[in-house]
Amino acid sequence: MAAITGVVITLDEADNIEACLDSLARVCEELIVVDSGSTDATVARAEARGARIIHQPYLGDGPQKRVGPVAATHRWVLSLDADERLTDGAVAAIAALDLETTPNDAFALRRRNFIGSRWVRHCGWYPDYCLRLFDRERCNFSESRQHASIPASQPARLDADLEHYSFANLGELFGKASGRFSNRAAKIMYAKGKRANAASPALHGANAFVRKYLFQRGFVGGLDGMSVALSAGVNAYLKYAKLLELQRDAKVREATDFDKVW
């Protein structure tokens, strides 16, 4: 099996980093953590797991995720978020690859998204294919500062999953949707010149809920399906409501730090 470098970006991920690195170490010969100023035990725990630490103030999603692969020793890079873990199936699938001769420049894994310990199979949350293993000589993360992807030219999908412990509980699901997720989206939209009208929040909120709950079969998922659909609606409603507020209220706009989007 070709040597692989495992890369993780972190900020105050002390509760997650050990399990993430232990997961990567099952298939990776080198571990790199790109930390953007953690004040908890993230760095110490990563070093104890044998990871090389690169200190880098946060640049946005894509630019930050490009740092580790550029510094990697090996050609193939496996990039995980700190709250992601490889399953046994993913370890076996990666170990079976002939990375020295494959024509593919990247491989995607299905992602199981969790609330607490509960795997949410509906609402568009599964299968959630994500490119995670790639040849850094042929591709890398895009420069997008929000939700960056890997623009591979010859990707392939592996028949295996990784686990994503997205939210500790329902409170965190709704808290992130109504808080930093919608705040960030509103700032980005305003800075890009996008504008909303009085109907935008309700229309976008309703559309997001209906899409998740009906078309993506959230209704099959019971409480969690309903909660994911509602949180998507709340997030969509609030990001447009906050955008409208930035347009209309000079006091709110002047108090908003648009340099702290990331």
Structure description:
There is one protein chain. 40% of the residues lie in helices and 21% in strands. It is an alpha/beta fold and 262 residues long. Strands 1, 2, 3, 4, 5, 6, 7, 8 and 9 form a nine-stranded mixed β-sheet that branches. Helix 6 runs antiparallel to helix 7. The chain is globular.
- The averaged pLDDT comes out at 97
Termini distance? 37 Å
Low-confidence stretches: none
User: Helical proportion?
Assistant: 40-55%
Number of helices: 8
Instruction: Work out the radius of gyration.
Output: 19 Å
Major β-sheet, in short?
9 strands, mixed
- How many runs of DSSP E, i.e. beta strands? 9
Question: Tell me, what's the shape?
Answer: globular
Element order: H for helix, E for strand: EHEHEHEEHEEEEHHHH
Query: Structural class, judged by helices and strands?
Result: alpha/beta
Estimated share of beta-strand residues: 15-25%
